[in-house]
């Protein structure tokens, strides 16, 4: 299975993963009343991710790819569950508040990841990375101060839960090197699929939304899956906190795509959001320019 060991190659790969994810909020905004069919969305997206990842593993490893599930271990189960929770709470966040609020919550991932990485992986964060995180913090605070819409608190809670779930996934990617990374992602898709199916059956709901919504559910699942493949590939060469810091391209791009009028949504961000997004962008630029001085201290890898 492909893993990048060279950080100079891994960095643009992770940046690209964030860019692909950034189209997610745009796809959600094109859906017809996604707030009324969240579990159908979670069901379809989880199934799409599970199928695509297993097809990828089949072509990568042949018919014995299923044996990866026998080696997934506790780290894979924890990581897959964390990612699954992140996927579930994402839709509840973005349908209860603006894309900007949801995305600024995701921008908090480096903080949670740094803490989890320090506690469980003994990853010491370099001064340059802390400076980059501080710059990103300023941006997040500025964005938060500019968003006071109704239901923003509910969206904020779900958004922060999504951020924590993804941070757990990011840390487990670097926990045990023998854990099959893509199988962990596939497990997350299965987790969403099973949980959604249970909720739908328990509440006597239909499994499918409209064909239009169903197509968008699958498109979003495909985008998420593509990004996760790239993110997992690049994870071995970059410490957990820095990994999530680089993926902040999702935040910047996501706010931009739902704003630009030519794409038909025109969800205009506040002045605070624009200024805060600039700080987030500068934090990524600063990190990229100082990467050579960042040292690695990995204990359990």
Automatic annotation (TrEMBL):
<keyword id="KW-0472">Membrane</keyword>
<feature type="transmembrane region" description="Helical">
    <location>
        <begin position="9"/>
        <end position="27"/>
    </location>
</feature>
<keyword id="KW-0812">Transmembrane</keyword>
<feature type="transmembrane region" description="Helical">
    <location>
        <begin position="214"/>
        <end position="233"/>
    </location>
</feature>
<feature type="transmembrane region" description="Helical">
    <location>
        <begin position="100"/>
        <end position="120"/>
    </location>
</feature>
<dbReference type="InterPro" id="IPR000620">
    <property type="entry name" value="EamA_dom"/>
</dbReference>
<feature type="transmembrane region" description="Helical">
    <location>
        <begin position="39"/>
        <end position="57"/>
    </location>
</feature>
<feature type="transmembrane region" description="Helical">
    <location>
        <begin position="245"/>
        <end position="265"/>
    </location>
</feature>
<dbReference type="GO" id="GO:0016020">
    <property type="term" value="C:membrane"/>
</dbReference>
<feature type="domain" description="EamA">
    <location>
        <begin position="9"/>
        <end position="144"/>
    </location>
</feature>
<dbReference type="Pfam" id="PF00892">
    <property type="entry name" value="EamA"/>
</dbReference>
<feature type="transmembrane region" description="Helical">
    <location>
        <begin position="69"/>
        <end position="94"/>
    </location>
</feature>
<dbReference type="InterPro" id="IPR037185">
    <property type="entry name" value="EmrE-like"/>
</dbReference>
<feature type="transmembrane region" description="Helical">
    <location>
        <begin position="127"/>
        <end position="146"/>
    </location>
</feature>
<keyword id="KW-1133">Transmembrane helix</keyword>
<feature type="transmembrane region" description="Helical">
    <location>
        <begin position="185"/>
        <end position="202"/>
    </location>
</feature>
<feature type="transmembrane region" description="Helical">
    <location>
        <begin position="271"/>
        <end position="289"/>
    </location>
</feature>
<protein>
    <submittedName>
        <fullName>DMT family transporter</fullName>
    </submittedName>
</protein>
<feature type="transmembrane region" description="Helical">
    <location>
        <begin position="152"/>
        <end position="173"/>
    </location>
</feature>
